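Quick one:
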Amino acid sequence: MNIRNLFFWGHLSIGCIAALFIFLMSITGAALTYERQIIHYAESLDYQALPNNASSKLSLDEIVSIAKTYPHEKSLSVAIKNEVNAFVQIKEGRKTLAYLNPYTGVEALTPGEGTKTFLSKLRAFHRWLTLDGTFSDTGRWVNGIANVIFVLLVISGVYLWLPKRINKRSVKQKATFSKSYVSKHARDYQWHNVYGIYLTPVLLVIVVTAIFFSFKWPGNSLKKITSTVPVVAPLKANLLQSKQSLTHQALFNRLTASYEDWQQIQFSVQKQSMDVQPFQVDLGNGAQPHKRYTVALDRVTGEVAQTLSFSDMSTYRKARNYIRFLHTGEIYGILGQTIAGLASLLVCLIIYTGTMLSIRRWQNYRKRTNTR
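Output:
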């Protein structure tokens, strides 16, 4: 058996083993392409109607006072979206405690709750193969192994795609669609090859980054070979000595004047008054770490004490942020999401054509066996 035959039978065998799981990950991944936009739209449908007197919006200091009334163990934070009637989000760590009406401070029902629940369960099935939205270590491992097999399929597929004799004519024949096909087998073979080779770069990015979500060893290995020390350390806050300090609203107003294109701003509620107040400013879609800034403002003067950007993070942290949002394409905005989603959808076609080619090969083998 020569090397090409070894690659072919290996490609076919592991493809048959993992086809179903790769298909499920791909179809659900395609369905989650615009998850962020869908959730935002669903939330906006539940926004409160804009009052006649739009200037009656509560100050951030009033919001902070309300936030402190919620029982909590971890630090509180307040998140504000740059939309006139968007709810103010009160968080404890990563957990959302409440959504407040920005004009009355009254707690509202979770906006877009039905949509969020559905997409959360779909995301859980995509990651862990569960139907109830809960975590499954078994499902995580199964999908992880399928992802590793997918990487091997992509690499072996590139080798098998290469013509035996590489020239302009042979490459064109394998890289373009025909106007007509003599059989379904010929059509499936051509579609499998053409879609596969063009999707290779995108699929490698999607699948390799997915391995980081399925196993701990890729992240641990990355941590060992990269620096975990930030380029610039966050400014250490000290207890405020002055009896006079600017309000949260005054600090917020100064911040938004400097970042007019802000999409969301979040800040921690300090248990004790400190000399600086850090704000996390997001200028992107929520999935673009290179568009996030941490701005620390002096509580007395309102001047910028420190600004941290993506480039100030440690190499490890920068890599993990990129890996997280490269997987979904969100790091490149709507275009990146569309490319990732379309690639996931076309993988389903590649799986279909590969499966049909395998079935026909098996059927032909059975016919040859029966005629002997």
